[in-house]
Amino acid sequence: MTILRKDWEQAQLYILHNDEEVEPYVKRHKTMLKRLNPTRTDNWISREHNATFIQWLKSHIFVELNVKSSNISDRLRWLSNGLTFQVFSYTAYMINGYTFYTKERDNQSTMQNSGVTLVAESMHISSAKDKTPIYGNMSYFGVIEHIWELDYKTF
Fold first, then answer.
1. DSSP string of 8-25?
2. CA–CA separation, 88 and 62 (whole Å)
3. Structural domain spans, the chain
4. Burial class (CB in 10 A: 0-12, 13-18, 19+), 147
5. Whole-number Å distance between alpha carbons of 4 and 144
6. Radius of gyration of the chain from Cα atoms?
7. Residue 149: which H helix or E strand, with range?
8. Contacts within 8 Å (CB) and 24+ apart, 1-5
9. Whether 14 contacts 102, CB under 8 Å
10. Chain centroid to CA 70: how far?
11. Which helix (DSSP H) or strand (DSSP E) does residue 42 occupy?
12. Residue 142 exposed, middle or buried by CB count within 10 Å (0-12, 13-18, 19+)
């Protein structure tokens, strides 16, 4: 199955933002954006970061790989190259002894196992004019609509 570019970008950003090896690059990119746009709000910086980080990381890692003293791991190199647009799709997935189903499969079963929760750091703003957003953990709840196996060509 082929996924849409928007879905591809969301999956890629989620993976990159939750990887220890990528974390210093996330900080570096946000710092660069703040330095180049000192009058912009944190909300704008976050949106711009999300819109440009994937391509910036790919370019940045490519440049670093051409420096002889570079110590970029193969894993980071493949992460920066990104996913393929082809994914395998499943209606169930077992991990760490737990089985999860898509909502569609749940609708055909008496056992419901498609609900999920995720705790993520979020920026909270009170209005568009808010100059002092607060970062904090927030719980998100939902149901599994798709289960995809993503491919980095090497992993």
1. HHHHHHHHHHT-TTTHHH
2. 28
3. 5-149
4. middle
5. 18
6. 19
7. strand 147-149
8. 1/86, 1/87, 1/88, 1/89, 1/148, 2/85, 2/86, 2/87, 3/85, 3/87, 3/148, 5/85
9. no
10. 25
11. helix 42-65
12. exposed
For 57, the token pair is 């990381």
> Is 125 strand, coil or helix?
coil
User: What does each of the 155 residues of the chain score in pLDDT, given as a tens digit?
Assistant: 888 999 999 999 999 999 999 999 999 999 999 999 999 988 899 999 999 999 999 999 999 888 766 788 989 999 999 988 889 999 999 999 988 899 999 888 887 888 888 888 787 777 777 777 788 888 989 999 999 999 887 65
Distance CA 112, CA 77 (A): 39
Q: What is the dihedral of CA 125, 130, 132, 133, to 10 degrees?
A: 10
Which residue type, as a one-letter code, is found at position 20?
E
The Cα–Cα gap between 152 and 90 comes to 18
Structure tokens at 14: 């989620």
In sequence order, what DSSP letters do the residues of 77-105 get, joined into one string? HHHHH---SB-EEESEEEETTEEEE-HHH
